[in-house]
Every structure is written in structure tokens, then in C-alpha cells.
Write a structure and sequence with these properties.
elongated, single chain, Nucleotidyltransferase, domain 5, 5-stranded mixed β-sheet, 5 strands, 329 residues, alpha/beta, 13 helices, 3 domains
């Protein structure tokens, strides 16, 4: 498309062509008058002779033929493999003997959604939702995390020394009958669906007693910032199917929602927070002990809730959606 201030807009092309065709101007004189080359003046004059005023508009630069383009059959095979197996361009290209960039262009041409935007179970685009007010829905989940031995793990001390430090720490750790394995802890997290405000504790196991105690403290934390919890969503873990958990929520008049089996994306907000927690706190720097890492958790939670821009909130922080997050009002 011609620039609005270009020497030859469609109107300028028509004037040039009429000067040459109808008024009989020489090409050089017309080119000098309209500040273009003689070749350009000849082109628009010739097009005016053939097509009239309609020939003064821009044409597509797409070639009339493309002998190197993939056949329709090959494109259909690419789309069929993508829909049936939900593979990326690299794997499809290896299967069909093509270049990954070629496969990517075909997928983009047919506007197929990215794999990251699809539900892996059904292949349908993920439907995202957000509750309208804080406290309407709180997501709770548990993530196991290996403890760092005293003296540091392999990231700090190397693999050999890290193994020795790990064996020494396990020898000093008392065995537990249930819950997390020796040398690991459980991150219990509650995150508000609307504001993404997060509350996390590190507990030794994931029993019903620990889950109920964490939920009670999480509800009290949200109440302290002016958020009344109405519903809680969890997965189908044993601690969330226990009688203690059921009786606790009934006593608080809080509805309990469970995710569908093998569908962790339903509880995706807290799952995504755990990924952020691991990347930006748990393994953000080489800690020399588990105590050192745990001491850094409160500072990270404060930074996450008050200062970290959230992409799902269009650059806002969770504090921007909870007016009493500081607990001072």
C-alpha cells in the first residue's frame, strides 16, 4: 500500500498516466514533473492503457505460481499429525521428513493454536477464567521439595561432596511413618483466584492434620487482609478427602471444590505459582543449607505479593487488587 505522503498515490498515478496517454507528454517530461523515474512513468501509463482507472491501485506482491510450495496432501498430513498427536513442528518434521520451519509456517498459515494454549487431555484451547472478587475462590495445593543438606548440595559443593552432605543430613533426620520422604518437605500453598495473593508454609508432611492446620492459618491470613474465603479448590489427594478436612470446612461454612482426576490444569493458578516459587526462590541462588533457604521465603512472598508484576493481571501486582494487603486498614 502506498504511503500517504508518497509522490505517486493512486491519484498521482492517474494524473501521470493521463498526461502521457491523453495529453501526449513524453515519458521523461512526465517523470520529471512527478519526480519519478521514466521506467515508473512508463509502467503506470501502460497500466492505464490496459485497465483504465482501476489499474492505478496497488496489487498483491504474491507470485502467480510457487512451484516449491508444499502440496495440499503434505499440508493435510501435517495438520492431521498435529491434531491427532499434538506434536510440535520439530517432531512433525522428523516424522514426515520436512524442515521444522516449513512445518511451522504451515501451522501458522492455518492458524492452529500453540501447544501451550491447548488442553493436553482434549486438544481443545484452554478456557481461562477468573473470579470477580477476592475470596470467591482460593486454590490450595501441595508440592514436595527436596531439602538442602548442611554444607550445600551439588550446586554449591559439587556432586561428590553434595552426596556426602546429603547422606550426613539423612542420618541425622528422624524417620517418619507417613507423609513426605526423608530429606524432603511439603510446600502448602493457598492462592486467591482473583488477586493471585499467595500464602505458603513449609510443613514436614501432607497428612490431614497438616492440611487442616495450614488451611486454618491461610483463612486467618486472608481474613487479616480483608478477604473472606468462600470456596476452596483442591485436587483429590488423600488429605483433602479425609473426614477432618470435610468437618473443618463445614465448620467454617466454606464450600469445597475438587478438580477432575488427572486434570491438574483446573487448579492451574496454584500449579503455576509453584513453578514460579521453584524458579525464583527455591533454586534462584545456591543456598548452603535448608535453613538459609527457608529464611528467604518470607521475603520472596512479600516481593511476590507487593512488588512483582503479574502478567495475568496486566502488569499489576496482587496488592493492587487487595486494598488491605498490608493489614493496616
Amino acid at each position: 500500500m502506498a504511503h500517504s505522503n508518497a509522490p505517486l498515490t493512486p491519484t498521482g498515478r492517474l494524473r501521470l498516466a493521463r498526461c502521457v496517454v491523453e495529453d501526449g507528454w513524453p515519458l521523461r517530461r512526465a517523470a520529471e514533473r512527478f519526480q519519478v523515474s521514466p521506467t515508473t512513468a512508463w509502467r503506470w501509463a501502460d497500466r492505464y492503457r490496459r485497465y483504465g482507472e482501476t489499474g492505478m491501485t496497488d496489487r498483491s506482491s504474491r507470485p502467480h505460481s510457487n512451484p516449491n510450495r508444499l502440496s495440499t496432501r503434505t499440508e493435510r498430513r501435517i495438520i492431521k499429525v498435529r491434531l491427532a498427536r499434538r506434536w510440535g513442528p520439530a517432531r512433525i518434521a522428523y516424522l514426515l521428513g520436512l524442515n521444522p520451519s516449513t512445518v511451522h509456517r504451515v501451522l501458522a498459515r492455518y492458524r492452529l493454536a500453540r501447544l501451550a494454549h491447548l488442553d493436553r487431555a482434549t486438544g481443545e484451547p484452554v478456557r481461562r477464567y477468573e473470579r470477580s472478587r477476592p475470596g470467591e475462590l482460593v486454590h490450595i495445593d501441595i508440592k514436595k521439595l527436596g531439602n538442602i543438606p548442611d554444607g550445600g548440595g551439588h550446586r554449591v559443593a559439587g556432586r561428590a561432596q553434595g552426596r556426602r552432605n546429603g547422606r550426613a543430613s539423612q542420618a541425622l533426620t528422624p524417620k517418619r511413618k507417613s507423609g513426605a520422604k526423608i530429606g524432603s518437605a511439603c510446600l502448602h500453598t493457598a492462592i486467591d483466584d482473583h488477586s493471585r495473593t499467595a500464602y505458603t508454609e513449609i510443613l514436614p508432611d501432607q497428612t490431614a492434620h497438616s492440611a487442616v492446620g495450614f488451611a486454618a492459618r491461610a483463612i486467618a491470613h486472608f481474613a487479616g487482609i480483608g478477604v473472606a474465603v468462600e470456596r476452596i479448590m483442591t485436587d483429590n489427594g488423600a488429605c483433602y478427602n479425609s473426614l477432618a478436612w470435610r468437618d473443618f470446612l463445614r465448620g467454617k461454612a466454606i464450600a469445597h471444590k475438587r478438580t477432575r482426576p488427572y486434570r491438574p490444569q483446573t487448579n492451574g493458578k496454584v500449579e503455576r505459582f509453584h513453578r514460579t516459587l521453584v524458579d525464583e526462590w527455591a533454586y534462584a541462588r545456591p543456598y548452603r543449607s535448608e535453613a538459609e533457604r527457608r529464611e528467604a521465603l518470607p521475603a520472596f512472598l512479600h516481593w511476590y505479593n507487593h512488588h512483582r508484576a503479574h502478567t495475568a493481571l496486566r502488569g499489576q501486582t496482587p496488592a493492587a487488587r487487595v486494598h488491605n494487603l498490608t493489614g493496616q486498614y
